[in-house]
């Protein structure tokens, strides 16, 4: 082989090896570009995945009912404690607990022995006084006749007899007899009054019902001594017409400004779970009550108890309707309390592959926004996957929803109520 031929073979091998090296370099560059693109897309995907997720509820049109809750006890519309004005021993008791009674019905009777004796004595004194009146009248008649005879004799004798002193004495006797008659009449009136008082006391030995109703409590037994010298003891407690009762509740001072007579309410009692009773407010007291530092105002609700399922003393929990709004815009209260968390730093969307692969200094994150200007309430809505504030004007609230009276908010708009964090 000549030298020229060897040289040509060496040059051919060099050209073939160069093409192979260029192909390998091109392949490596392409793989690097694909890897960089995949890395960039992965970073962008992770960035999107790390956006906060929220729970939302739609704004709705509905009816708003504002209620005030209060607790109290059921009482009869009229409850009477029946006692005794007299002291004595209880002879007989005619009624028991839960017995219906009528006005004037005898409930119990005291021993009448001493009272009857007193009436008999007063009757005797009256009889004596009336007899004294008869005696005084007879004396008046006698002295009057004697004076008349003397005046006739004096007229016939021309004033010679009787003497003037005898006439004066006769006139004085007549006046004295008339005074005795008047005194006897006064004694009769006094004796009659004493007799009437003793008869009244005898009648009071019978303890009678002052009302139509039912016996709630009997606090006396036969043979028991009643001492009424200082204070009338309570023998019976009566309730008038349990078909009409009242619920006396204590309304907190923070709520009393919204509670007025005539408002409707409903209440429940533990004795009948799940049953609602209707009521109407009849009175809100101006006088305050304080217990353990808590100020409240007694409020009375009228209750119909036709089936007698309610009993005095039962504890009732009432919901008083203080405000009703029909067909208004409502948002959950959680939406008004919600404020989004501070968002994490997110790389800009534009930029080269290499810039996305390069490490960056952390950015300063903005502070989370609170309420609107001057404390104006606001809600947050989702726009483009991000929370955006919307200032609103609020009205009444029932504790769960609040009325929206102003602002750029419409029915059906989803408002954020809770942050669910970022996706993993």
Summarize this, please?
The protein has 424 residues and is of the alpha+beta class. Among the domains are: 70-74 and 242-326, Efflux pump adaptor protein, beta barrel domain (Elongation Factor Tu (Ef-tu), domain 3); 112-204. It has helices at residues 3-49, 113-156, 164-204, 333-337, 353-357; strands spanning 52-58, 60-83, 88-93, 100-101, 106-110, 206-208, 213-218, 225-226, 234-252, 264-269, 277-291, 294-304, 315-332, 378-383, 386-397, 401-407, 414-422.
Q: Can you tell me the residue ranges where pLDDT is under 50 for at least 5 consecutive residues?
A: 344-371
Distance between the termini: 73 Å
The main sheet orders its strands as 2-9-12-11-10-13
Question: Which overall shape is indicated by the principal axes computed on the Cα atoms?
Answer: rod-shaped
Q: Specify the number of helices.
A: 5
Descriptive terms for the model:
four-stranded antiparallel beta sheet, Elongation Factor Tu (Ef-tu), domain 3, 5 helices, 33% helix
